[in-house]
Amino acid sequence: MDPWRADLERMLGELRPRLHRYCARMTGSVIDGEDVVQEALTKAVQAFPGARPIAHPEGWLFRIAHNAALDFLRRRAREEGLMAHDDVSAVADPAGDADRRLATTASLRILMSLPVAQRACVVLMDVLGYTLQEVGDILDLTVAAVKANLHRGRTRLRDVAAEPPHGRLPPLAAATQVRLQAYIDRFNARDFDSVRRLLAEEVRVDVVGRARLSGRREAGTYFGNYAQVAGWTLAAGMVEGRPAALVSHSADAPPSYFILLDWAGDRLSHVRDFRHAPYAMDGAEVTLLR
């Protein structure tokens, strides 16, 4: 491997959790945030040879991630027919402890109530700890514009935090809960032959950050790997309203990561395993089904 490629991959590995923390808060979803991170990393790998030397590689990478997040939000707005226009060129003092605590603990839903530029400035400075100048470099804004967006964003966060909480996500359909529990019961029993019989012929398995498998034959290796690993247990749950297996290292431990599961009829069509991306639990709206 070329030395520059090794250096790039090391940097990407080190920064991926921070990139996800940013992208999840920009998109309002730990799941969509991971999609944006993957898109950003792909663009970074493609652009890196022609961009060298890079004076500030971390800022360069966050700028790519920010632009990827904006592209995602524009696509989603077009799909939803909600083409909103934020004033990204629109004065704040350095964040106090209260501002930092509020931004760090705010749910993804609350952060999504901020316009894009305000949200980006608040997350980069109050959550990730970048300076005013660094935030301006990443977002291509003047320091004055960063200050203005910080002031407005922090004010909006305080107002939203004082409002009554929104209602909970709707429950899973009964049929989906039955399918999810059947999968988890067989998985916990290490009955992987029965698990494989649940798979659709064209099932896709994504092990986030590691591998993508297509079809029942390739997917078999994924379950074979789990058969060789001890010390885990699955529980039925939801992540952002989607059916998921919540994975713990013991029956009384909190979940350390999750596996998203989708069905086509009665067959499992898509598995998305976050085993190697436990950072996605940060900010995730997780519900344990009883």
What this model shows, in words?
- Residues 82-91 have low confidence and may be disordered.
- The protein is built from 11 helices and 7 strands.
- By secondary structure, the chain is an alpha+beta fold.
- The chain has helices at 3-27, 30-51, 57-80, 97-105, 108-111, 116-127, 132-139, 143-161, 174-188, 192-196, 215-227, and strands spanning 199-207, 211-214, 233-239, 242-248, 257-264, 267-273, 286-288.
- A 7-stranded mixed sheet has the order 2-1-6-5-4-3-7.
- The protein folds into 2 domains: 3-161, Butyryl-CoA Dehydrogenase, subunit A, domain 3 (Up-down Bundle), CATH 1.20.140.160; 174-288, Nuclear Transport Factor 2, Chain: A.
Shape type: globular
| Structure annotation, total helices | 11
Instruction: Classify the fold: give the CATH topology of the largest domain.
Output: Butyryl-CoA Dehydrogenase, subunit A, domain 3
SSE string, helices as H and strands as E: HHHHHHHHHHEEHEEEEE
Assembly status = single chain
CATH class of the largest domain: Mainly Alpha
Strand-residue fraction?
15-25%
Count of structural domains? 2
Rg from C-alpha positions? Answer: 21 Å
- Number of extended strands: 7
Distance between the termini: 49 Å
Structural class: alpha+beta
Catalogue the unreliable spans: 82-91
Largest sheet: 7 strands, mixed
Task: State the helical fraction.
Answer: 40-55%
Order of strands side by side in the largest beta sheet?
2-1-6-5-4-3-7
What is the residue-averaged pLDDT? 88
